[in-house]
Amino acid sequence: MNGINLTKLPNGLTVLSENIPYIKSFSLGFWLNKGSRDESPDNNGITHLLEHMLFKGTPTRSAKKISEEIELYGGYINAFTSKEHTCFYVRGLDKHFGRSFKVLADMLQNPLFKEKDIKNEISVILDEMADGEDNPDELIFDMFEEQLHRDSKLAFPVIGNEKNVKSISQEVLKDFHSKNFIPENLLVCASGNINHDDLLKLVEKYFKLEQKSKIEQVLTPLPKIEEKFVLQKDFGQIYCITGTKAPGILSNKRLELNILSLILGDGSASRLYQEVREKLGISYQINSFINFYSEVSSFGIYFSTGSEKNTVKVLKVIDNEFKKLKIKEVTPKELQRAKELLKANIILSLESATNRMIRLANLMLNYNRVVPVEEVTAKIDAIQPDQIQVLANEVLNQENFIKVFIKPNSKVIITAA
């Protein structure tokens, strides 16, 4: 593929790059193929804590020096943890690529894990938890995912829980790092004005991780819990999610699900926006969403409104639109709008080197290959109205939906449909 190079080293490390010669920048990511779904009920939250701790210093760099070595040359350094992956990344000017690689490689391989730093960072994460619980937009999605995936480890929140995070020790962190930060679990991915051979030389020079036996974790189901879960909170509006499980990122129906979501509730021309906000004027925000995971996704509708009466009205509109999609094919115009939006979202994201790096990494981690944009857009163009109708009949069944409510001066309430 033009400009894209892939090398799988003998020790199991994967190196992927895309050369974009007409820009003067780069984005570099070190990806760990592990996330919160790889944890246990006893250590949920450890991957996220580890992500924080790798910024706290090495034998040759303090936490401040790590940031300074990047920012002094106009760069930006950050990281994120998801349910399936963890990424540490830098973006900056191409002439500082080697310097940035060296800092990231040191961070990942040589963390100090000082007791004082662990204690401080646990406090930071507990504060982050409190902030999330005070934000209804975040809280309701966490509660929804926890209940929807309660039969699997996808129910685990990325941030973990207070009891677990407080109990994570220096010894536990070191052991987790040693067992998981092995070449087989890592992907080095870069996009921008960089050369693949130069990247391989940097890997050879600065990556000294030893090859170890990969530890396969058994993703045993969580025990079933009660259908209702309540959490006392006090917010001003009613927030609601109604949602279900749907095809995952590895499914050949992934693009069709994106199209269905766009038609239903993504954009101001979508059905739910027009019916609920424009015609009835009873909700400022209403949209469909998809959280993709490997073999399954979380699909649903999120909205907020000011009264119980309006909540009932919105849920009725949602049910009516579900029924319409199941009994009647979408119009060519409606389908074309969704196709063009989906293609535009993909293509416009490629204007950012960081987005390109993230896209490459996700493709490699999920499909073990880089899927050309032209292949994706061709598949989108080939989607027909009857495929959307078939998928609607598979997914939009209210008996499989759960509802999550946050109500004023009340509780978080989760119920079956």
Please explain how this structure is put together.
The protein contains 15 helices and 12 strands. It has 417 residues and is of the alpha+beta class. It has 2 domains: 4-206, 2-Layer Sandwich (Cytochrome Bc1 Complex, Chain A, domain 1); 230-416, Cytochrome Bc1 Complex, Chain A, domain 1 (2-Layer Sandwich). The strands form 2 sheets. The protein has a 6-stranded mixed β-sheet with strand order 1-2-6-3-5-4, with helices on both faces. Helix 11 (308-327) packs across helix 15. The model is unreliable at 213-232 (pLDDT under 50).
Strand order of the largest sheet: 1-2-6-3-5-4
- Top CATH class of the largest domain: Alpha Beta
Helix-strand string: EEEHHEEHHHHHEHEEHHEEHHHHHEE
Mean pLDDT: 92
Summarize the main sheet.
Answer: 6 strands, mixed
Q: How many runs of DSSP E, i.e. beta strands?
A: 12
**What gross morphology would you assign?**
globular
The Rg value, from CA coordinates, equals 23 Å
CATH topology label of the largest domain: Cytochrome Bc1 Complex, Chain A, domain 1
Per DSSP, the total helix count is 15
Tell me the CATH architecture of the largest domain: 2-Layer Sandwich
**What is the structural class?**
alpha+beta
How many domain units? 2
Distance between the termini: 47 Å
Strand content: 15-25%
CATH superfamily membership of the largest domain, which one?
Answer: Metalloenzyme, LuxS/M16 peptidase-like
Task: State the helical fraction.
Answer: 40-55%
The low-confidence parts are: 213-232
